[in-house]
Specification:
Blueprint (H helix, E strand, L loop, with lengths): L4 H9 L3 H22 L7 H9 L14 H14 L12 H7 L5 H11 L4 H8 L3 H16 L9 H4 L1 H10 L8 H8 L9 H9 L1 H17 L7 H11 L8 H9 L1
Helix pairs in contact: 1-2, 2-4, 2-14, 4-13, 6-8, 6-13, 7-8, 10-13, 11-13, 12-13
The structure holds zinc ion (ZN).
Length: about 260
């Protein structure tokens, strides 16, 4: 029997241990990957983040929509980043300035620039967007030149340093025309392309909320690729932390155990 992400969300929302056990086993490895990328300075570790997600007000499990796994992980990423210590950039830049500066770029070029705010190197960006790292590097240079022309105080890492605040601003900038996750997921699965969907492409090219959303889903695909669930022994300390009882072995195993 396959236990789905949707069932997990329903079980977690209802406070059933089965949901939380599955959440810990399947998604603690994802949280570890997120911390490795986004946690800077003193590492507070995974435990306080898990504890915060476990609280009812974390709202991670409150959406009533059936959530496909990738959308759920995209939400989880936002919740995890919210728990991290804030970063203070040497020079600041806001979303409006970036939007104005990078206006001449194509959609793909804007995605490359945005992945820099998500702390991806040119090589990693190449993997995520299926382009040569040298191409990603070149586009970054172009974006840097455009931004330098718009700000008084520029630094090489201005996008990366401001990434956290920019991500929050982009996530909050949703408009009525913004695309649902399914449209992006269909695109990532190769079921659709921008071709012949001029209106959608025109919107996304202008909309940093949608560019951020798309880049986060691209990130999720990569996070889930080869994500290894924890074994019961590895998950046990986290179950204990959350006060979730370990799974009872199936009846036939308990019967066998009594026989030896
Ligand atoms: Zn949009």
């Amino acid at each position: 029997m396959i236990y789905t992400c949707y069932e997990m969300i329903a079980d977690c929302r209802a406070g059933r241990a089965e949901g939380w056990r599955f959440f810990v086993s399947s998604y603690v490895p994802v949280i570890r990957q997120l911390l490795a990328r986004y946690q800077s300075g003193a590492a507070a570790g995974l435990e306080p983040i898990l504890a915060a997600l476990y609280r009812p007000e974390s709202a991670l499990f409150q959406s009533l929509d059936p959530a496909p796994e990738r959308w759920f992980v995209a939400q989880l990423r936002q919740k995890v980043l919210k728990q991290l210590a804030p970063v203070s950039p040497a020079s600041t830049i806001d979303l409006e300035t970036i939007s104005a500066a990078l206006e001449p770029l194509t959609l793909v070029e804007k995605q490359v620039a945005w992945l820099e705010t998500m702390l991806y190197s040119p090589a990693e960006t190449g993997v995520l967007l299926r382009m040569a790292p040298a191409t990603a590097e070149k586009i970054r240079g172009k974006a840097a030149d455009l931004i330098r022309g718009k700000v008084d105080s520029w630094s090489r890492n201005i996008l990366a340093d401001n990434g956290r605040a920019l991500g929050v601003a982009a996530a909050a900038a949703a408009g009525a025309e913004c695309l649902p996750p399914k449209t992006f997921l269909d695109m990532l699965d190769g079921r659709t392309t921008w071709q012949g969907r001029g209106e959608l492409e025109r919107h996304v090219t202008r909309c940093w909320h949608c560019i951020d959303h798309f880049c986060r889903l691209v990130e999720v695909v990569e996070l889930l690729r080869g994500n290894q669930a924890l074994s019961d022994a590895e998950a046990a300390p986290y179950w204990e932390l959350l006060g979730v009882s370990p799974a009872r072995p199936p009846a036939w195993k308990r019967w066998l155990a009594r026989r030896v």
